[in-house]
Amino acid sequence: MAGVVEAKLIELGLPLPAVVPPLASYQPAVQSGVYVYTSGQLPMVDGKLAVTGKVGAEVTPDEAKELAKTCALNALAAVKSVAGDLDRIARVVKVVGFVASATDFTGQPAVINGASELLGAVLGDKGVHARSAVGVAVLPLDAPVEVEIQVELTGV
After folding, report:
1. Cα angle vertex 15, ends 48, 90, to 5°?
2. For the CA atoms of 2, 5, 65, 140, what is the dihedral angle to 10 degrees?
3. Measured between alpha carbons, how far is 61 from 139 in angstroms, rounded to an integer?
4. What share of the chain in percent tops pLDDT 70?
5. Neighbouring C-beta atoms of residue 10, cutoff 10 Å
6. pTM for this structure?
7. 123-127 long-range CB contacts below 8 Å, 24 or more apart?
8. In the chain, alpha helices (H)
């Protein structure tokens, strides 16, 4: 039976995906005390990148914002893999987003809003967080966006 958070995802038409397997030597998420830290999550759908390229060149900012939402969904799946239940999230503490950017693209914050807005829609006040949005030259697999999150859990 899905918890409240997963029911909200389903209501939004965004069922929780399977955890994306690591591309190298790391875990998708680890827990330390009351915190879960995810590895950077790419916008993988069914085991592959939906889109590749630089934002502001091959990828539009609006497309990238949607991809950031996919990254956040993958991050929630990684959190669930170690926490067992997304209803244990007390709050999202921090979101860090990386945007593979064309040299003249400066709209990284608007792109990462895709992740932030999803977390807010799903978790309400618990989804309000600190954040960094960073432009980079290239990301793994030529992904346009990568997002990692840190959450605090209840009931530890």
Report:
1. 110
2. -70
3. 16
4. 98
5. 12
6. 0.96
7. 123/5, 123/89, 123/91, 123/92, 125/91, 126/89, 126/90, 126/91, 126/92, 127/91, 127/92
8. 4-11, 61-83, 108-123
Over the stretch 122-142, which tens digit does the pLDDT of each residue have?
A: 999 999 999 999 999 999 999
User: pLDDT category, 154, cuts 50, 70, 90?
Assistant: very high
Q: What's the chain's average pLDDT?
A: 96
Query: Dihedral through CA 92, CA 45, CA 97, CA 9, nearest 10?
Result: -30
CB 83 within 8 A of CB 155: no
Residue 138, judged by CB atoms within 10 A of its CB (0-12, 13-18, 19+), counts as exposed
Query: What is the b/e burial string over 14-32, where b = at least 16 CB atoms within 10 angstroms of the residue's CB?
Result: bebbebbeeeeeeebbebe
What average pLDDT does range 30-34 have in this prediction?
Answer: 97
CA 16 to chain CA centroid, Å, is 12
Residue 76, token pair as written in the block: 């929630």
